[in-house]
Amino acid sequence: MKALIYHGPGRRAWEQTADPRLTEPTDAIVRVDAVTICGTDLHILKGDVPTVEPGRILGHEAVGTIVKAGSAVTTVKQGDRVLVSCITACGRCRYCRTGTFGQCLGGGGWILGHRIDGTQAEYVRVPFADTSTHLLPEGVSSEAALMLADILPTSYEVGVLNGRVRPGDTVVVVGAGPIGLAAVTTAQLFTPSHIVAVDPAAARLEAAKRLGADVLVGAGDDPATAVAELTGGLGADVAIEAVGIPETFELCTRLVRPGGHVANVGVHGAPATLHLEDLWIRNLTITTGLVDTRSTPALLDMIAAHRLDPTAFVTHRFGLHDMEAAYRTFSDPAGTGALKVVLSRTMTG
């Protein structure tokens, strides 16, 4: 088969490699029908995730068809159309028993495209298939389901739920890339009074407006002044960091009011300064997190019921073998306007 293989910082190749095989009775082999690229993949290529070894197949999001299932797999079978979650769960360890699948101790967590070969390939081996795939209803498109592999549950759980967004809150989302836009979308489930999107790129702010942000803060604007004017000088109730650089994290801590919440979602590759000399007296709650994907079934139900349509995140479509072109497009959002790219087996390019 062909796959996108990481060869060290700054180096990748779509090339021939061995087909995956079942190694455990709980495994399944999934034919990849649709796959996407994540900002985390770009962090890996920058060298920000040194635990990813050269030779690894990248990717942790896919929709596909099960072509082979191990003898212990009982809830999905050959021919089933499934969502492959970015988080793998053994289903038995202490963390999995409490729904904290991202911290799985039994061989799961974020392993696809990280510690084992991932989904940016023609086929992928999925460990613990019973608890790491989701059977897709007939009426849910592959594109819509693909947005549930990572960005929607990540933004919802690590941003909105960790931030404890409540009705009437003022919510600031710093960074209007795919993760930030998913936070804008899912924050609306809790009817905040205002959603403020902060991003220097005009195209991304327009996307944030389409998806529900009502206040836009762009290049040349002062986020602190905008939030202060909106809240009578109090600051935001919740600030969601969706970039992953020190400046945006520190900005979030300045934008929230005393008693507010800072929910960090971005993947950081460098240290950020925590200004406790200023923050200790303000009663702030700061959370970080890796998604657990415990919300995926509920989000899938919302899509099936037409209460949520995440296909608005998809801006570019490619054939599966156009992986290099898709990476070039996704890695240059300022030039291409890319939010999420989808690569499909059924497209020829």
Automatic annotation (TrEMBL):
SUPFAM superfamilies linked: GroES-like (SSF50129), NAD(P)-binding Rossmann-fold domains (SSF51735)
Domain Enoyl reductase (ER): 10-343
A matching Pfam family: ADH_zinc_N
Key words of the record: Metal-binding, Oxidoreductase, Zinc
Coiled-coil blocks: none
PROSITE patterns to which the protein is assigned, alphabetical: ADH_ZINC
Cofactors named for this entry: Zn(2+)
InterPro entries linked to this entry: ADH-like_C, ADH-like_N, ADH_Zn_CS, ER, GroES-like_sf, NAD(P)-bd_dom_sf
PANTHER family (UniProt xref): NADP-DEPENDENT ISOPROPANOL DEHYDROGENASE (PTHR42813:SF4), ZINC-TYPE ALCOHOL DEHYDROGENASE-LIKE (PTHR42813)
Family (UniProt): Belongs to the zinc-containing alcohol dehydrogenase family.
Protein name (record): Zinc-dependent alcohol dehydrogenase family protein
Natural source organism: Nonomuraea composti
